[in-house]
Specification:
Family: Belongs to the DprA/Smf family.
Number of helices: 18
Oligomer: single chain
Helix content: 40-55%
CATH architecture of the largest domain: 3-Layer(aba) Sandwich
Number of strands: 11
Strand content: 5-15%
Pfam family, one: DNA_processg_A
Distance between the termini: 43 Å
Protein name: DNA-processing protein DprA
Radius of gyration: 21 Å
Strand order of the largest sheet: 1-2-6-5-4-3-7-8-9
Order of helices and strands: HHHHHHEEHEHEHEHEHEHEHEHHHHHEE
CATH class of the largest domain: Alpha Beta
Organism: Brevibacterium permense
InterPro entries: DprA, DrpA_SLOG, WH-like_DNA-bd_sf
Structural class: alpha/beta
Number of domains: 3
Length: 399
């Protein structure tokens, strides 16, 4: 119930709220925010109390202002009523990190990981995303782009791979429809509440998704899609997929934002080539030209990126076998050994653009000294490297 309230109080990807919840738990965080909203205490006094208990989030200079901002929404949330009741009435559910259905790959988002997810649909989210590929691209897609997306999604679905997208017009809708036609689950991440389909013209498509797949959102029921929520929604699409495929994207397409999130998470990014004179493919070509995406033309190319000889990020077979033998499963990811500050620092890095230590420290909310120590640890783990103009994240250990 506390997480349900916090999802309405905070915006998607609110790293400061996530740090507060990680530090003291959702119930205590909600209690403090609500007390400030009711005038029972001030944000300054609340932060002072958190500092006295050693809560890490209290060290952030913006926490008092953030608590005041959340407190206003806490009062509004009381007036709206129970989101849990609303979601139950339409057959949905709220899943949180302690649930079996929680997709563990989203934890890779670190401070930007969601506190919980509102879900509708027949599919179990964790099962559906065990092997998944994001297929995204332009809303104003050409016939060429729509055909590429449909063929790719159909072939992936035939191989038991879940197609993930954003439910929008164009490439997204073509990918979802092909997976549905193949009677395979498909997952749509929304920028607004799961109780209000957007775009409304795709309502029939969303109803079909519910039958075998899932519609997912971080935002509370009834909340409207907004531009910044679309961009933050894209990080969930990227994190939930082993490969993000950009089928067709213009120079400023939102699909490029999904690719950027995938690169920051060290996920594979692929792109379909388009006609050289097509404005709809300039963004995809930019990714290919700058070596940020692998060129693909069919499902075999995408699956090769998933199964490139390294253990799949979300493959549970190794873990299950080890559990059955009583042995400790081997570590599939060097990030498992990182401490919290090192994980935050890793998430602040990008694959393509070297960042100086000051920028990294600012983005991660760390001191310069802590950032330097974390970068050294990441370098030793093969997760980051120093370049002439700064630090970059490595796509693969030692890469």
């Amino acid at each position: 119930m506390a997480i349900a309230s916090l999802l309405r109080i905070g915006e998607p990807g609110d790293g400061l709220l996530k740090r507060l919840v990680d530090g003291i738990g959702p119930v205590a965080a909600l209690t403090i925010i609500t007390a400030v909203g009711r005038g029972e205490t001030t944000a300054h006094d609340a932060v002072q109390g958190l500092a006295d208990t050693g809560t890490e989030a209290a060290e952030h200079s913006q926490l008092p202002a953030a608590i005041d901002r959340w407190a206003v929404r806490a009062c509004e949330a009381d007036a709206v009523g129970s989101d849990l009741d609303k979601i139950a009435r339409i057959g949905g559910r709220l899943i949180i990190p302690d649930d079996d259905e929680w997709p563990r790959m989203l934890d890779d988002l670190g401070p930007a990981a969601p506190l919980g997810l509102w879900v509708r649909g027949a599919a179990s989210l964790s099962a559906a995303l065990t092997r998944s590929v994001a297929v995204v691209g332009a809303r104003a897609a050409s016939n060429y782009g729509t055909k590429c997306a449909s063929d790719l999604a159909w072939d992936l679905a035939a191989r038991g791979i879940t197609v993930v997208s954003g439910g929008a017009f164009g490439i997204d809708a073509a990918a979802h429809r092909a997976a549905i036609a193949r009677e395979s689950p498909t997952v749509a991440f929304m920028a607004g509440g799961v109780d209000r389909f957007y775009p409304a013209a795709n309502a029939e498509l969303f109803e079909q998704i519910l039958a075998t797949g899932a519609i997912v959102s971080e935002t509370a029921p009834g909340m409207t899609p907004m531009r910044h929520r679309f961009l933050l929604r894209n990080r969930l699409i990227a994190a939930s997929s082993q490969v993000s495929v950009i089928v067709e994207a213009g120079w400023r397409s939102g699909a490029l934002n999904t690719a950027r999130h995938a690169l920051e998470l060290s996920r594979q990014v692929a792109a379909f080539p388009g006609p050289v004179y097509s404005a709809s493919s300039t963004g995809a070509h930019k990714l290919l030209r700058e070596h940020e995406a692998e060129l693909v033309t069919c499902s075999d190319d995408v699956i090769a990126l998933m199964d490139d000889g390294t253990p799949a990020l979300f493959d549970t077979a190794v873990l299950s076998a080890a559990a059955g033998s009583g042995e400790r499963p081997p570590s599939l990811d060097p990030r498992e050994g990182l401490d919290e500050r090192e994980k935050i620092c890793l998430n602040a890095l990008t694959v393509s653009k070297p960042l100086d230590v000051g920028t990294i420290a600012s983005r991660a909310g760390l001191t310069i000294a802590d950032a330097l120590n974390s970068l050294t640890a990441l370098d030793l783990a093969g997760l980051a490297a120093r370049r002439d103009t700064g630090w970059v994240k490595l796509r693969k250990p030692g890469g």
